[in-house]
Amino acid sequence: MANPSSHASTANVQPMFSQQINEIPRSQQLRYPENHPDGVIQVNPMSEAGAIGSSLEDETGIIPPLVSPPATPGGTIPPSHTHPPKLLERLPEVECIVRARIPTTTGAEMFLHLYHNDVDNKEHLAIVFGNTIRSRSLDRVRPGECERDRMIRGAYVGKLHPGRVSSWYEDPAQRGVPSGSIEDNDGGAVNESGLTPERPSEAPLVRIHSECYTGETAWSARCDCGEQLDEAARLMSLPMGTLNEIASQQSRTVPSNVSGGVIIYLRQEGRGIGLGEKLKAYNLQDLGNDTVEANLALNHPADDRSYGLATAMLVDLGLGVDSNPHGIRLLTNNPDKIKAVEGSGREVIVKERVPMVPLSWQTGGKMGIKSSEIEGYLLEQISKMGHMIQ
């Protein structure tokens, strides 16, 4: 993880504030008590807060910290604050702990994979559509486990059903495997060497998605994260005939999903700063900052996310360069994410960037999020973060 101090330290942000403060007459400066670490802060003498401060000083002799230093909303962010994500020298160690079939509200099915890793204690997820993408670490036979153990943790082929006894075949009798031959004498699982995993026939769709509680669960119109998650799932799950029909009705094209797709869901809320700090940033936005400025005002980088875990999870899912010659098609508007996902050793190859154009832009406002705040957010993504929404 990048060191926040190298991106948004007090040394980088505060000189602008200090210069403004020093140019204000001392009589118009708002001061903390002598033992307060923040010292002098600026107040506009014409503001209501300035008038309140004057009246409070008359009564108590101390002016409380009513106004913080200005954050210069709309100011220029130095390029160093928006540099590409840091590439890790080595990929994290990841292991898929459990996988389960999820029937969705749209009628489509996907397999939810839960991952552990050696970098953090968070449970990151992979949402897999289609039957050709499987986890190596999940399928690996574990010492002492029986067939039922494997099925419970999701290491099975096909689908589960009542009475199923083999993780390798849905119906061993139909495959010429005698009943009871699936387990060895110690009760451990036996890998049927005749099984060869299917491979994607072309580059599958992949979305690297960072958790966004506010946009996905709390219906926030400050960002389009929830819409992008829904759109990625739709593109990966619907039959091509249905997708083409919808596309023709809305006068837009859709990428092929015949090889299935994967949404890597990383638990890095608020561009890596966490939900609590993200909500503080929301309040700063209401005070006039944009999302980049708000993060910097809280002494966080503009973007503190990393994608090494995503690369390692894609490799585990058989989409690395060592086993997938087709590469992947990455659903993203962020060109910097391409290199970050490929990794320092190009462990994954991004064959194509597939843009995620907001639905409101695609449909002329007939669909998607309708909010002045989302328009400002999208323009900021283009102007300050270098996103390509086209």
List keywords for this structure.
390 residues; alpha/beta; Rossmann fold; seven-stranded mixed sheet; two-stranded antiparallel ribbon; 9 strands; globular; riboflavin biosynthesis; RibA-like_sf; nucleotide-binding; EC 3.5.4.25; GTP cyclohydrolase II
Indicate the mean pLDDT: 74
CATH class placement of the largest domain: Alpha Beta
Envelope shape: globular
Question: How many domains?
Answer: 3
The biggest beta sheet, please?
7 strands, mixed
Order of helices and strands: HHEEHEEEHHEHHHEHHHHEHEHH
Structure description:
- The chain has 390 residues and is α/β, with parallel strands linked by helices.
- It folds into three domains: 5-70, no CATH class; 142-190, no CATH class; 205-383, Rossmann fold.
- The chain is 32% helix and 13% strand.
- The strands form two sheets. The chain has a seven-stranded mixed β-sheet, sandwiched between helices. Strands 1-2 form a two-stranded antiparallel sheet.
- A hairpin with a 5-residue loop joins strand 3 (94-103) and strand 4.
- The longest helix is centred in the first third of the chain and has 13 residues, at 10-22.
- The chain is globular and about 60 Å long.
- The chain starts with a helix and ends in a 7-residue tail after the last helix.
- Mean pLDDT is 74; it is low at 1-81 and 176-188.
